[in-house]
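From the methods appendix. Each design record in this collection lists the tokenized structure first, followed by the designed amino acid sequence. Records were kept in a plain field format so they could be parsed without special tools. The example shown here is representative of the layout used throughout.

RECORD:
FOLD TOKENS (266 positions):
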């Protein structure tokens, strides 16, 4: 049986299976909202008092369940006040980011760059059981550390994709520095336009839950036996084949692994 619950904090609408309050695993949800300066921000109808171009909202610890934020901004523009509303689905433990600025005022990237700790890079490649025969594609490659490490440690081919020209420069510099130009390719591309049906045998991601979900139609076209690794974030509500936690100086990182067959429901 399902029931609707509005948390006492007044910030979240959610759908929770009956009996889940008996579970002890409660986690917060963090959402960053980017806005024009001076905009008013409302979540579930409650106005947030924080100011600035980026507002961060952290929920109280919540039991497992499916939650929905309704986020509304009132923005003063050249033609007067206008209202922008978005709804996003979240789960306890999620970190999400949403940009309510006008398209011409937003950066080209979908998520702020955060390097994957090298300890996590090493662990995720071990989790994926990378071999010399693999072809690793890192979607959102940052400074190229995952393709470079995969090639240096396992001798496989690898390719990194990023839409940000600054990250492409960083990646190319790293490839040259490590002397792996023969096996590593770096390309400036929008990852949501890539054809994943041929080429990669391993996809690595460090995005956001909503971006992972947006990639699902492409990921489901991966060839049989291909694996998908996501750092920190779930893939919709699809249960991973494996899940590890890596302890680093920056904190603990969840690393999830799926197979193409799992994502397709084969």
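DESIGN:
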């Amino acid at each position: 049986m399902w029931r609707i619950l509005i948390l006492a904090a007044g910030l979240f609408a959610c759908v929770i299976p009956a009996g889940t309050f008996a579970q002890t695993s409660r986690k917060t949800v963090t959402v960053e909202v980017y806005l024009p300066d001076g905009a008013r921000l409302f979540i579930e109808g409650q106005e947030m008092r924080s100011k600035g171009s980026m507002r961060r909202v952290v929920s109280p610890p919540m039991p497992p369940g499916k939650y929905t934020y309704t986020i509304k901004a009132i923005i003063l523009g050249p033609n007067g006040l206008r209202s922008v509303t978005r709804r996003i689905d979240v789960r306890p433990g999620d970190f999400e980011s949403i940009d309510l600025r006008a398209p011409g005022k937003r950066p080209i990237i979908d998520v702020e760059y955060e390097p994957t700790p090298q300890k996590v890079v090493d662990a995720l490649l071990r989790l994926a059981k990378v071999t010399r025969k693999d072809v690793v594609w890192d979607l959102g490659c940052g400074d190229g550390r995952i393709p470079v490490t995969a090639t240096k440690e396992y001798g496989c081919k690898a390719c990194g994709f990023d839409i940000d020209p600054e990250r492409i420069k960083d990646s190319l510099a790293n490839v040259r520095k490590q002397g792996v130009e023969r096996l590593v390719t770096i390309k400036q591309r929008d990852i949501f336009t890539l054809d994943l049906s041929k080429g990669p045998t391993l996809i690595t991601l460090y995005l956001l839950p909503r971006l992972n979900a947006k990639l699902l139609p492409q990921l489901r076209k991966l060839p049989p036996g291909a694996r998908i690794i996501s750092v920190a974030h779930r893939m919709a509500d699809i249960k991973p084949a494996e899940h590890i936690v890596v302890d680093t100086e920056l904190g603990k990182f969840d690393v999830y692994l799926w197979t193409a067959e799992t994502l397709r429901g084969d």
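APPENDIX NOTE: The CA atoms of residues 1 and 201 lie 40 Å apart.
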